[in-house]
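@channel sequence for tomorrow's demo:
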Amino acid sequence: MKRLVFLTFAGVLLIWTIQSLHFVGLVSSHGMSLKVFFQLTSFLLPTFLNIILPLSTFAVILFTYERLTSDRELTILQGSGLSPAQLSLPAILCAFCALTIGYSLTLFAVPAAYHAFHKKEFHIRNELGGLFLEEGVFNRLPNGMTIYVQDKDENDFKGALIEQTEKSGERIILMAESGTLLQSANGLELLLKNGSRQTLNKNDQTLSFLGFGEKMIAIAPPPTGQRSIDAQELSLSELLKLPQNLPPVFTGKFYAEAYERLASPLYTLAFSLIALCWTLCGPPRGDRKPYRPVLFAVFSMALLLSANLLLRSFASLHPDFGGALLALPILPILIALFILFKHSGSSSHYP
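structure tokens (generated this afternoon):
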């Protein structure tokens, strides 16, 4: 179990590190702080865990039983009268624990985290494009405006300096003692207090100066549209109860996602039983080449995983075949259980 936890944690950390690189552009273009960056990417951790858990369970079981075989420990246990079904019981219990975690992830944690992730991402890209301003840094916004703040407390600023260039070519510098970011129907705006406005004329290079008590400037326009809902952020009941006027393309995609929610945890058990069959029900150690069961088990697992990807794409286009997504992992589970119990009642070690 310790190996399973360690391997799962390492796999999640690796995928999280790789996927975090996709948000570097969001950090640089919107001035996002590291705190918000880690908060955003942490919403993806349940999804990564759901992906890694079946693979790590398969790898741990395969490695453990192949190690026992190479050390002749399985041979001794089999010689004492234990059948393959009895020897596989600890691994099956471990797989059922991972299966339970998998269903809690796919049915509850992953949709909720995915919904929070997309909501936060949309909020950053559209509604709060200029909110993440670092203090003591010249923050360059997507609209070409540069903002410097000496100190900030959430949406309140002190010692603000803003530089922008008008369409006419005039360069404007605004300085203020304090300011506040506001969200309104016009978008994101900055209210400056007790400051001055300096304008450099493009033609004669003359400088004009104007003081003000309060001044409102636009930072980012309002969102251009509503956020589209992804199938992965809907609950299972919402996926199965779709509106009747929904286009067929979306219907197939949503039904495929619903069946995949029910089927994906079963791959943990299917992969585990595949590993057990090749390590426990193959020829004796002296009659086979080293690591051949490992290669066959990995190939069988990869073949089943590829079939799932192909069938999911097909089911999204043909909703009537959605049930096949659920049947795909159940079939190797039944076959593997049949092989294990068949060898448990036979004295032969050959499949």
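heads up for whoever presents: The longest helix spans residues 89-127.
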